[in-house]
Design brief:
447 residues, alpha/beta, Rossmann fold, five-stranded parallel sheet, binds NADPH dihydro-nicotinamide-adenine-dinucleotide phosphate
Length: 447
């Protein structure tokens, strides 16, 4: 069968088996659309039905999360963990707490995670979890009770050699701490079962910074290949969470100027450059909204709604908030304003139509599974440190992170060239990530 007939048949099966899961469909389609050249070169993948197996999670766990709020009212949320693929190691991927979470989002993220983890070169399979719980506006005690209830069920399914969750949207150091405490209490073991832990109890230096720093390291490689650098560049960033904050920090360290930050309510534009201390204080310490920024910095402007961020003139754009936040219209604005490169800090923030606009206009576009792999890479390093019962210095961990991001860039660029799609980093990342997983699946027999 011709490669495109194979991928089409797999995609149709995905639509049939997973109705209504539009984000999962989108993520699968993006990958399948790139794999034709790999299937032609490796007919053994087709014969072994590797693709059919890849799109079907090894295990999906859905569970009730009952908890009590501060008023004493009983609340019920839904929790889930999708253990997608373990060909390369224990399932690894974050947990997201956000009201929009449903199985389609967890599956899209878990599917992306398989190839992303493969690209890092570390031994990690792919998985993802989450809940429709909204931590916003909840007290610390409420968040703790929710996390404890969530982990009471999840702890049956995870373990340091089985499945090692981490944070994602709505899950930071506070939530990881509460979940780790509950795991330890129920299982009576102190193991590296979660990453993103506090530095005093098994966390890794650089994990907090890793995704944002890694994004900027890989985009720096992209710029270097164009004979350019971040120095003197104007950069737009969306979001003001973990990824956004440390992307801004690294761009500033490399001499660029980030002029935007946002949250789900609105956008701040600061022509003098975003003052990161203020953003950290507002978001990491006080858990306030980004609009408070303009009460402190009078030159900055706040706009309700966050889509306008892509209308701000920039050389490099780094979407770091959430999926599908940058559409075709936004992509056209970036092209019109002279943007030269886009790197996805978030998972799938650019719609397929936006990516097409970038490719048509020769904007260098680095997809999330390569660009934001720094977070899971340092999570993998945290697992390694936990196994050895040691902790590395900031410098050593940061330098490992940088090496991994450079390696991801090189393998992405080379795979694109080798498979006849030079400069297309979407194809390059998908093929480079996929071939490694496919070879491991072939070697491990029909499982
Ligand atoms: P955080 O929860 O720390 O921050 C998320 C940011 O995005 C917040 O500013 C949030 O605003 C904004 N946001 C969330 N949902 C929406 C929405 N629907 N519309 C507009 N803005 C929104 O999450 P992270 O920074 O950890 O994650 C951001 C992205 O990066 C996600 O796609 C995640 O999957 C991805 N990622 C994260 C990694 C990590 O290590 N943290 C690793 C790899 C990928 P508000 O506060 O208003 O909700």
């Amino acid at each position: 069968m011709a490669a495109n007939n194979v991928t089409q048949a797999v995609y149709e099966q995905v639509l049939k088996r997973n109705p209504g899961e539009s984000e999962f469909h989108q993520a699968v389609k993006e990958v399948l659309d790139c794999l034709g050249p790999a299937l032609e070169k490796h007919p053994e993948y087709v014969e072994a039905r590797i693709l059919d197996r890849l799109v079907e999670p090894e295990r999906q766990i859905i569970f009730r999360v009952p908890w009590q709020d501060d008023k004493g009212t009983f609340q019920v949320n839904r929790g889930m963990r999708v253990e997608f693929n373990s060909a390369l190691g224990p399932y690894k991927g974050g947990i997201r707490f956000h009201p929009s979470v449903y199985l389609g989002i967890v599956k899209f993220l878990g599917f992306e995670q398989i190839l992303k983890n493969s690209l890092t070169g570390l031994m990690m399979g792919g998985g993802k979890g989450g809940s429709d719980f909204d931590p916003k506006g909840k007290s610390d005690a409420e968040v703790m009770r929710f996390c404890q209830s969530f982990m009471t069920e999840l702890c049956r399914h995870i373990g340091p050699d089985t499945d090692v969750p981490a944070g994602d949207i709505g899950v930071g150091g506070r939530e990881i701490g509460f979940m780790f405490g509950q795991y330890k209490r129920i299982r009576n073991e102190f193991t590296g079962v979660l990453t993103g832990k506090g530095l005093d109890w098994g966390g890794s230096l650089v994990r907090t910074e890793a995704t944002g720093y890694g994004l900027v390291y890989i985009m720096d490689e992209v710029l270097k290949d164009m004979g350019q650098s971040f120095d003197g560049k104007t950069v737009t960033v969306s979001g003001s969470g973990n990824v956004a904050i440390y992307a801004i920090e690294k761009v500033h360290q490399l001499g660029g100027k980030v002029v935007t930050a946002s949250d789900s309510n609105g956008l701040v534009y600061d022509p003098d450059g975003i003052k990161l201390d203020t953003v950290k204080q507002l978001k990491e310490v006080e858990r306030k909204r980004i609009k408070e920024y303009v009460t402190i910095h009078k030159n900055a402007k706040y706009t309700e709604g966050c889509t306008d961020v892509w209308g701000v003139k920039c050389d490099v754009a780094l979407p770091c908030a959430t999926q599908n936040e940058l559409d075709e219209e936004a992509a056209r604005k970036l092209v019109k304003n002279g943007c030269v490169a886009v790197g996805e800090g978030a998972n799938m923030p650019c719609t397929p139509e936006a990516v097409e606009v970038f490719h048509e206009n020769n904007i260098l576009f680095m997809p999330g599974k390569a660009a934001n792999a720094g977070g899971v890479a340092v999570s993998g390093l945290e697992m390694a440190q936990n196994s050895q019962r040691i902790g590395w210095t900031f410098e050593k961990t940061d330098s490992e992170l940088k090496n991994i991001m450079v390696t991801i860039y090189n393998s992405t660029r080379q795979a694109a060239e080798e498979y006849g799609c030079k400069g297309n980093f979407v194809a390059g990342a998908n093929i480079a990530g996929f071939t490694k997983v496919a070879n491991a699946m072939l070697a491990q027999g029909l499982v």
